[in-house]
Amino acid sequence: MFGLGADATGNSVQGNYIGTDLNGTTDVGNLRSGVLISDAASNTIGGTLTGTGNLISGNDHHGIYLLGTGSTLNLVQGNLIGTDLDGALDLGNTLSGVLVNGAVGNTVGGTDVGAGNVISGNDQFGVYLLGTEATANLVQGNLIGTDLNGTADLGNLRSGVLINAAANNTVGGTDVGAGNVISGNDQHGVYLLGAGATGNLIQMNAIGTDIHGEKDLGNTLNGVLVNGAPQNAVGPGNQISGNDYHGVYILGAGATGNSVQGNLIGVDATFTAALGNSRSGVKVGDAPGNTIGGTTPAASNVISGNDHYGVHLSGIGATGNSVQGNYIGTDPFGTTAIGNLRSGVLIDDGVGNTIGGTLTGAGNVISGNQQQGVHVRGANATGNAIQRNSIFSNAGLGINLGIDRITANDTDDTDVGPNQLQNFPVMAAQMTLSEGDLELNYFVDSSTTSSAYDLTVEFFKSDGSGEGQVYLGSDTYTSTDSTNSITMLDVGGLVSEGDQLVATATDLNGNTSEFSVPIFIGLAPAGTLAALDSNLDGQVTPLDALKIINTLNPSDASGESGTRLIDLANDVNRDSRVTALDALLVINELNESSPEQLLFPTVTLDAVWTEDEKVLADAPMDSVVEDQEVPAFVPAVEAVLSDIDVIIDEMVDGELDDEATVDEFWTQFDDLSLT
């Protein structure tokens, strides 16, 4: 063992085999560390020139041990630490490759050609920075957990780099050549532990891949674990892919104020193909106040191709975190899908988090994911604002609250659940698009006791499947807007006739709704299957007609919906009102699609229906003409749903039976009282 004490300064240890035989292939290790520097400054172990590096392997403690605050400005460069002479086989030191215990301002590796070390195969950590006094150390340009070529797994048996209660150190850096390859290790790639591990920078490293960023050499656990450690920066410039757990895991109440910015997480170095972490790209577990991404282009992460979620905010302690400006499920241009295999963002019991935001550049692109775009679930998951994102082409819903399907609006929004199950806006189909201005009419059925006013209503051009792809603008919906609100949006050239519009509502506490039912700008294709599915269950059934019938109460004198805007899903012909015609369009579709069942009489009405004008024409069933019987109406519906006869009986106060005439049916239709 080489030992350098307090007065030993300016020394060089170069070209030695420390712990091996002369061939560099056999362990004949020293009983303690290979090199110990105790309170000694400005020494060099190895070097950048050919032949100056040492082989330091097989020792029974650490390969190199830097001890004490007096151990400063030492260089550890160009060495093989824990391998054989070829840098290909495991000849590890029994403890860590390099331990920096309370030492200040030392450099392990460097940015010069030849400065990097191979630190692999050791029985504990590759590099271990320990203690509150171990500050301002640099770990740069090394291969930690791979062979000499950076292409094969030769992992340390614990983490590649452990920073335990040590502050203001840098692993990697923004200078050319500063990044490390930290892959193949049997625990985490980089592990930040404890409240004292603060102000550390993890930058420009390949964590979980080979040196080229193309091959999976994942660390066995997380790429980066931040456990109870505050105010650290992961990024910019890391590629964190291929790890067997999460790419980045921020864990615990003490892990606050950390940032994850400017990284590739789950993709290869060309950011064109998946190289996913086996769980989530970024997980925040019961940790508050962390930032994933940001509002500037440099802060944006690509979080795509991971086997679970892109971003997972988990637990009631996951509060006040922001996810902004990222590409989640795509390449960094938002044009090529590299989807995460579950949802883009999952908030699971997290409280008061922000996905996107109202600042310029805050919105995320969330697309191509195999489940939801953003999924909020769990009884405690409230106050999560989802604003100004571009959400499109996900396999599931763009925004999903709770169960894995659309959550229908309820009267006055009294239900509770994720994000308080905030009702989404209902928009009228009558819109005016003129010279880049879009005038629209909408309503949010949410009482002041259910939602914190004022509400922010955001409008988006839809991707055609009900997700909000292009943010168009917002409006403030106040508690005095108890009926309808008319707003004018300056949409420039972003939309045109035939495009679809969706909207969300966010209350003052940050509870954002799901996307609204999409409506067309201009005349919608009335009677399309999508329009006829009024209960949004993905199919057209008699229940769709009955839902429309039920919502005709309260009605005005003409039998149309009352003063408040109706649920647009019931307006299947998109004429901005709900009438008997909407229900009959569904009935006719059912007869056309299943003529052998004939669940309802097929009826054709004229284009404009009023209370006094009910025109029956071209009925395919000859027996269905005015003043003749409606055949098998109630029994046929009973066969579809066991309790539908109860609904029908309530709807018509029990007065419509098998012998009812069409006129009698219309009379009851006009005076519905079902609640």
UniProtKB/TrEMBL annotation:
GO biological process: polysaccharide catabolic process
Record-level Gene Ontology MF annotations: hydrolase activity, hydrolyzing O-glycosyl compounds
Entry-linked Pfam families: Dockerin_1
Name of this protein: Dockerin type I repeat protein
Record InterPro entries: Dockerin_1_rpt, Dockerin_dom_sf, Pectin_lyas_fold
Organism of provenance: Novipirellula herctigrandis
